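BUG-400 | component: ligand-complex export | severity: low

The export step for pyridoxal-5'-phosphate jobs runs without errors, but we want the raw record kept on the ticket for reference. Input record follows.
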Amino acid sequence: MIPALTPTYNRADLAFERGEGAWLYTTDGRRFLDFAAGIATCSIGHGHPHLVQTIQQQAAKVMHVSNLFRVPQAEKLAQRLVDNSFADSVFFCNSGAEANEGMVKFARRAQALAGHPERTEIICMEGAFHGRTLAMLSATGNPKYLEGFGTPVADFVHVPFNDIEAVKAAIGPRTAAVMLEPIQGESGIKVASTAYLQALRAVCDETGVLLALDEVQCGIGRTGKLFAHEWAGITPDVLSSAKGLGGGFPIGAVLATEAVAKGMTAGTHGTTFGGNPLACAAANAVLDVLLAPGFMDQIQARATLLDSLLDDLIKQAPGVFAERRGLGLLIGLRCIPPVGEVQAAAQRAGLLCVTAGDNVLRLVPPLTLTEEDCREAVSRLRQAVLSNSSADTTVLETSL
Ligand SMILES: *Cc1c(COP(=O)(O)O)cnc(C)c1O
């Protein structure tokens, strides 16, 4: 018989009762170090007092009023994102897929208003992940995800990632935008090179094509800057955000330049829940932490520490880990044995991680983690892959 909860996930048999910082506690009293962070979403950790108090207080005042009225919390959040990014205007929604849908609408509408309604095609990347709505399945392009869901939505084409010549060759009179993740998350923590992002910006400028960045996973401080594209010294025309923005409370956003956003006049797009007082209060509390002086430096310092500890571990376990990649606290370890086995061994050692494509173990801890958390995580991962006392790890040892 089908479970009451539709079984679209293979869930680990763990249920958590509470969390504190980078730690999660199960209902039966076990404690885990959380380097999954709700898939790079619990950006300021579990039970952060400022986030908890803000949500409690806002919930007691007013949670939801609709976008038929002014929402001061949304106005404040939009202004802070504008003040701290390339953007001139921000639209709020509820998830990453929804933010990406909005981003495509912004781009097409801007092209139409510029006299090019025929420019509707979006050039996407092989290995992309943009979400599970019907249009974003087509932007993602993975045949496995599309199977059984009918004709793909038109006007999404795919080119190899990190290949500027492929983009140039794909751009035509109907191209509206190039859409990509500066760091591909789901397909295995693949970083777009600085030279590639800079060349993309130049090609887009030359051809009137818009640069649309999906920073749902790599944005909001994950790489040690508010947005990952800042490392390349470029700016996009439009950007999607979600995951870490609400620190676990659902919220997404489309950030755009004035030139792109000005087509989005009253009635062109909408949402019932998007940008409500409760979600925006939560995101403002997250930004209070992230935008505090020195916090991005702290993220970078934690990342540097983790990188060096992980590089040592890779040297000690060359039969398990082939390579480290990523940027900041978006870390991928490409595995030699099946990544699912490494993830399971880590879980038995009390460390939660996420898998990604390309046989990669994904480490995406809360951005607020301590130095001690970094050391403890790598120590647990070492125990998971090198221990010879536990029968549970023999699977890994035999592949060493
Ligand atoms: C998670 C993710 C999405 C989808 O976000 P949802 O909130 O699950 O809809 C889109 N793009 C990227 C890069 C993601 O990591």
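Assignee comment: Attached the raw record above. The radius of gyration is 21 Å.
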